[in-house]
Amino acid sequence: MEALPRLRLALVLSAVICFSLLERSSALSSQDLQIVNAERRVSFSFLICTYIISHNVSPSQFKPGIVENIGTPPASEILLAFPPTQVDHLALVKAAVTAGKRKKKSYSPLDVKPKEVFDAPNGAKYFTISLLNPLKVGESVTLEVLYTLTHSLEPFPLEISQSESQLVYYHDSAIILSPYHIKQQITFVKTPSTKVESFTRVDPTDRAGTELKYGPYEDRPPYSFSPTIIHFENNNPFAVVEELVREVEISHWGSLQITEHYTLVHAGARHKGVFSRVEYQSRPSFSGVSSFKHLLAKLPPRVHSVYYRDEIGNISSSHLRTDSRKSELEIEPRYPLFGGWKATFVIGYGLPLPDFLFESSDGMRYLNFSFGCPLAETVVDKLTIKVVLPEGSKKPYAVVPFPVEQHLETSYSYLDVVGRTVVVLEKKNVVPEHNSPFQLKSLDTQGQIPEHVLAHVARCAPITLLLNSIEQSSFKFIASPIRHDVFITLSSANNVSPMPQTSVSFVVAP
Ligand SMILES: *[C@@H]1O[C@H](CO)[C@@H](O)[C@H](O)[C@H]1NC(C)=O
Ligand SMILES: *[C@@H]1O[C@H](CO)[C@@H](O)[C@H](O)[C@H]1NC(C)=O
Fold first, then answer.
1. What are 106's strand-pairing partners?
2. Interior/surface letters 392-421, b for 16+ CB within 10 angstroms, e for the rest
3. Domains in the chain: boundaries
4. Counting atoms of ligand 2 from 1, which one is nearest the CA of 502?
């Protein structure tokens, strides 16, 4: 299995952890905390396999999660451990303290940071969760941890024909890896269908319908681990955007012009044999079940202009639905995408700038735009967002709610004399949870970074500040045209079957 190439799959993990602190009289170390009850839920959705770990207790037997504090000093940090193989695939780790149950459940988000530990058993990697209120002896806290892994499902067989289902391997541990003693734990793995070829048993292990249950296991010492492999059907389309470059241009004309360059691949089991359109169309439920036919791009409301930049040819058909809250662009390639097939295409559109320009309480204007990928249910291996500011703009900096790499570039178009400042944001391993707004702000009049920005940036972990500013006078608002033709190009690459490229055009109503 180790010899198989890394598969381009995505995995989302989420975890809920209940800790209880026991009282002991030794000095407080990780050994002084223990997890009273842990429940983990692993699931696999769309192209992504969603692996949910919840350290939780079923309601009927629920005792508040207790990390028992055996030492005297209060515990302010909880450690999360990951096997080294998972760390490289971690797209996101979130933690919250929860209170109450079901509908009345409340969440208080906590800071999670990577932590270097040199003598960690089995090369485990750590994250620390900082508690808002240190846990005193005898106190308990219930935590929920959600994490997302990408590229963690391996198609096997590696190649399938058009009429076959896609099967994948998923590697995990029946026992939750933790630096703490876990008194009781259970893991549920939800498979996309009832078709499970095989799974490792670590008794007690049960399977019913689409659910595999590992545990309950009692009293497992720290760093217990018990490898499992599950081989199951997963016909979710594995749509991976290998690279996405989004160019956001703030024009002098009161508009935001967006151009998005996609390199999309179906990262599932490779298609073998010849593609038969007749078979594909006549037996849709048996033929090409893991392929995908549509892609949905979720765009902001009031998309007012879309253009196409043709690189190889135009694509088949598309539909744009728009209401006051959102626009949805459905792209329907002329040929379905099978495993190993690639498509590169460009989506371009315009948006009214006033929808994205805000003013903070101190009178500073900023651009508020969404990070992430507009294509629904995709993982992006590498995302680059380039915000091109009007000519002469000075000292912008972006505030993003998670770590991203930032730098400035200067771009020259033939009309520019001075050149335009481009803020470049880069992030690898982007999942739908990263589709949250970011802000592009500027220095205050004294050329200082405002205190509250520094504070925010400090909270948002390693973000580099870029100092420049959007020149407010450059924005002029001009009524946008009410009707535009939209063109999108989907071009074939590498091993995409050579289907005819046809043109699409749609009319965007205001
Ligand atoms: C940014 O825009 C989103 C809506 O797209 C809004 O919910 C959010 O409050 C805005 N953030 C700021 C800081 O203006
Ligand atoms: C793409 O479609 C548009 C509109 O139908 C057309 O004007 C353009 O020439 C097409 N480009 C190619 C390369 O077919």
1. 99
2. ebebbbbbbbbebebebeeeeeeeeeeebb
3. 10-233, 239-443, 451-506
4. 14
Say whether 329 sits in a helix, a strand or coil: strand
Q: Residue with the nearest Cα to atom 7 of ligand 1? A: 437
Ligand 1 nearest-atom number relative to CA 358: 14
Closest atom of ligand 1 relative to the 300 alpha carbon: 5
- What CATH number was assigned to the domain covering residues 10-233? 2.60.40
Q: Could you give the CA distance from residue 268 to residue 159 in angstroms, rounded to a whole number?
A: 9
The per-residue pLDDT for range 300-331, each reduced to its tens digit, is 999 977 766 546 665 645 778 888 899 998 87
What does CATH list as the number for 239-443?
Answer: 2.60.40.1730
Binned average pLDDT, 10 residues per bin, the chain of 510 residues: 35 41 36 78 56 31 40 74 85 83 82 86 87 78 82 88 88 88 88 94 95 94 92 88 94 85 88 76 68 86 74 64 89 77 88 90 87 91 92 81 91 73 93 92 49 41 27 25 24 26 25
Closest residue to atom 3 of ligand 2, CA basis: 503
By three-state DSSP, how is residue 173 classified?
strand
Question: To the nearest whole percent, how much of the chain has pLDDT over 90?
Answer: 23
pTM here is 0.73
Fold agreement (10-233, 239-443): yes
| 434 C-alpha to ligand 1 centroid (Å) | 14
Q: Would you say the CB of residue 435 lies under 6 angstroms from ligand 1?
A: no
Report how far ligand 2's centroid is from the alpha carbon of 507 (Å).
15
